[in-house]
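Researcher: Please predict.
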Amino acid sequence: MNKIPAFILTDEFSTAEVLKLYLSEYDNIEIMPTSQNYSDLQDKIISLESSSLLVIDLSYNKEQKLEFIPSITKECKKCKVLALSDSPSVNLIIEIMRAGAKEFVPVPIIKNELFTAVQKLITEESEHKKVSRCKIISVFSNKGGIGKTSLATNLALDIADITKENTALIDLNFQTGDITTFLDIRPSFNITYLLGNIDKLNETYLLSTLEQYKRTSLYVLADPPFFKQADNITPKQITKLFNILKETFSYIIIDAEASFEGKNIAALDNSDLILLLTVANLPALRNTQRCLELFDKLGYDKNKTQIILSRYIENDVIKEDDVCRVLSKNIYKKIPNNYFAIMNAINKGLPVSILEPSSDVAQSYYELAKDITDNLYRKNMTEKFESILNKE
């Protein structure tokens, strides 16, 4: 059996000795000499053709090591990172996992906790086990023309930028999809092509078929170019496609159709979060009420749907409190009304996040993306490391 090279990066001699002692009990782990020079260590890990393990202690020089982790995981996909710290907290663990670490163990090290974490990493590698933690987020409104596609597009790009993880943006507006126009792209393939080849789909196929946006980790799945192509798409196919996409992408952002047609309901059913857009006028609020009533009948959890108040004007006739009272639900986020920034972005085929990143609307999109990813990280990490965090 080939042994897994293990590198220990810590500023504490005692921590290093404990790790060497414990890891030496694994027959399939070989402890390697570790340079304290980050560049030399990175070169050594990257030069390995086999899988490897990096145990990195963030008790000291935390910021420097948080920058080092993604440089390793990005360049060396086969290197698994186990992080340590003597000051575990929810926020720290979120930072560590976002940087690219797969497991976390607190210092002082408890042998059983270390063994459990190492075993998970080894098992995942040897069995090629992939547990999907993908989150599906649908941007929806049953009223058109209130900024749904703009929100979906910018949200997807910002999530990809914040997390550096593979993010899919799917246009489910089968009749009037605009994502390709908003991003000024001309994909070679669309959703009907993928559904026609659904049994062939794997990570390599998906990443080469979906349109990668400007060398980011955002991949776009376009709507069909002809109306008739969507006629034969079924809700079952949508569900099957999502289940396959979840194995490759960490986030799936859906620009959902403004309808309650079966394919669209399938997308909403499969979503972890629905961002329900509305604006502060009575017709839109009545439509939003109907959406909430339908979602309640579909059995959706109350927290699954969050209200986004689009085109928000601070001194509007209908105030924020009025919207909350009418909908009997708090507003999750407000997107300011900036017609000129949005139209300029649309006409130039660039997301406002790229064209005017300092504008109020771009900042609101970014804050929404950050809030969503932070909450998801916080939830996942709290569940995963509940026993550790309870010791705080």
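Model: Residues 4-129 form a domain with the Rossmann fold fold (CATH 3.40.50.2300).
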